[in-house]
Structure formats: C-alpha cells, structure tokens
Amino acid sequence: MDMKKILITVAVAAAASLAFSCSERSASKYYTIDGTAQGTTFHIVFQPSIASDASFTATRDSINACLERIDNSVSGYNKSSVLTAFNEKGEEFVDEIFMDNFHAALKMFKESEGLFDASAAPLFDLWGFGFRTGTEVTQHMIDSVLEFVGMEHFEPCLKLRDDNDTIQDPAILRNDPRCRLNFNAIAQGYTADYLAAKLDQMGTLNYLVEIGGEVYAKGVNPSGTPWNVGIDRPVDGNNSPGADIQAVVRIQDCGLVTSGDYRKFYIKDGKKISHSINPKTGRPVEHNLLSATVVAENATVADGYATYLMVLGLDKAREVVTSREGIEALLIYSQGDSLKVWMSDGMDAIVE
User: Fold this and answer.
1) How far apart are CA 46 and CA 221, in angstroms?
2) Is the pTM of the predicted complex or chain greater than 0.85?
3) d(Cα 4, Cα 259) in Å, to the nearest integer?
4) What is the CB neighbour count within 10 angstroms for residue 83?
5) Helix, strand or coil for residue 206?
6) Could you give the C-alpha distances from 117 to 82, 150, 154, 175, in angstroms and in order?
7) Contact 177, 292 (CB under 8 A)
8) Closest C-alpha among 18, 110, 4 to residue 61
9) 65: exposed, middle or buried (C-beta count within 10 Å: 0-12, 13-18, 19+)?
C-alpha cells in the first residue's frame, strides 16, 4: 500500500480476510486493519496515541467487538440479531444500537418528507432487494404493502418486560404486525461513526474508517494532509472498486458516502430494475441520476442523504443540496451517451 495516499473507493469492495502489514507497522506510526463485516469489507487506517504492538492489538480487538455488537443488533441477515427478532418474531424490546439506528432513520424520514423510509423493508423484499426473494410485482401487491409502510406506524418507548420488573427497557411498538424495519440504508454509515467514536475514546489521533464504501475520516493521513477518497465512475460493469475513478475528494473530520444504481440492479424483460425504491409509489425510481456522493458532519447523515438524493433524481437532488446547510454533494448523471457531473460549491472546493 502507498501510505502517502490512501485511496478508498466508495463502493462494495471485494471480500478480504483480516490482515495487518508488519512492514507498514514498523515503518510508520500509522496502522491498518482490514476485514469483513456486514456482508462487505472494512478498511481502517489509524495513528494511535502510542505506537506499539499492544496498542494495535487493543484497537483491533475493540474494532472487532464493536462490529460483532452491531451485527448482533441491526443485521437482517443475522438470524440471531435483534432486528430479526423484531421483524420475524414480533419482539418489541430492542437494544441501544437498534434504537440509535431507529432514531437516525426517523430523523431522515422527517427531513426527506418520507422519501427515506427504513420501514420500506417489505417493498425491498417485494422487488427482490431485501431479506427475502422477490416475485413478479403487480400494482395490487404494491398497494397491499404500502398499507403498512411508513415510520408513523412505529412508536419508540420505554416498557417493563413483565410485572415483576422495576426497570423499563427500550422498546418499539407498531400498530400493524406486518410492519418491518430495514436499516441497510443507514447502518453502515452508523457503523463508521460508531467505530470512529471508539477510536476517539482510545485516544487515536488520526484515522480513516471505511465499511462497505461508507467513510468517516478524522485528522490527516500519513502525509499530513486530508484523506483522499476515490469516487468510482458509475457505469454498468464497473465492478472493480478503484479500477475506474471519476474523482478524488479530500475529506477531514467528516463523513462521506456514495449511493448508486450501477451495481445493485437487475434486468427483467429488458428493463433495468433499480434498488433505489420510492417508498411513496412503491416502485424503483426511473431517472438519469447514476450516483450521489454526499459529505456531511458524519457518515450516518451522509449515508441517509445519499440514499435520499438517489430517490429524488437530479433536479430535485440539486435543490435539496443547495438548500441544506452542512450537506455537500457530487452528483453523476447520464446525458445521452455521456456522463455529467454536478457539484455543490463546498464539494467543488475539496475535489481534486
């Protein structure tokens, strides 16, 4: 790895086993941890307050424990997770991580006027992008599902587990047993922030955390400059992260996330079915916006807004970005056979 320029492509990376380079460790005060989690890969570069084998080991073990904790809470693919118990078994009680994701999703639901909706899980299942396999979709099926989609169906609260308890635990009530949640559009951004908070707690000076393309970066890279993050060109067939870069963004003390439709889609009857679904219509979006890269105060917010912008489409996405303080974006869209780029002023200032 060229430690003078860390390039993380914001896309789902190829799987990699947990690894650490001893040569890098001995040559620099920056360390690296790579591994797999949440069905994708993660990559962390960090400068601990004290460079030592013990410091690296403690950080690695702490990161792995955090990832396991999050997986056991909000992973829909983990059959033993809190989310699975909530969705499939009707369990009302949740943990702190689950509640954090719920409140972050609820905030985005309100800010997006319902276009970012973690309760749209049944729609993603219906179209074949969720935790279940989709089938032939009809308007009647969509209308049936929309009856129980919407965050207004859920109410967070504190509740006694039974009459003998004296301590109330966090719980989420729903007014329809068919309602389900899916935090895929925000959980990896939350994970990047969660790991960043853990690194801060351990006194880490400078770091970059990336999980599945969701990034949070603090301080400077080994060259003493802001971290460089590569944005993949959003063209069908570009399945090798880093092979075809559209732009490089310099970030520091903020989150960066890209959402796009050039990898998560399928073709049915000659038509491209996008994984970006409008929760109000219940249908995959159809527009020329190919990817949205968002820089925000943290990766959770960036993750939510990147998804929101992809549902909006180009024109409305530009309106939202220019009207929201603290949100910068790079939008890549198609125009005929060409790719075009629109950037907010703040994003233009940090793109190489």
Assistant:
1) 8
2) yes
3) 27
4) 27
5) strand
6) 19, 7, 12, 17
7) no
8) 18
9) exposed
pLDDT in tens, the chain (352 residues): 333 333 344 333 322 233 334 334 433 689 999 999 888 899 999 999 888 999 999 999 999 999 999 999 999 889 999 999 999 999 999 999 999 999 999 999 999 999 999 999 999 888 887 655 556 889 999 999 999 999 999 999 999 988 778 889 999 999 999 999 999 999 999 999 999 999 999 999 899 999 989 999 999 999 999 999 999 888 765 555 555 789 999 999 999 999 987 555 445 555 555 568 999 999 988 888 999 999 999 999 999 999 999 999 999 999 999 999 999 999 999 998 899 999 999 999 999 8
Candidates 283, 305, 274, 287; CA nearest to 146 is 283
Inter-residue contact 325 to 201 (CB < 8 Å)? no
Give, as one character, the DSSP assignment of residue 3.
T
**Residues 296/327, Cβ–Cβ less than 8 Å:** yes
Residue the block writes with tokens 């003078």? 4
What is the bridge-based pairing of β-strands 7-9 and 227-232? parallel
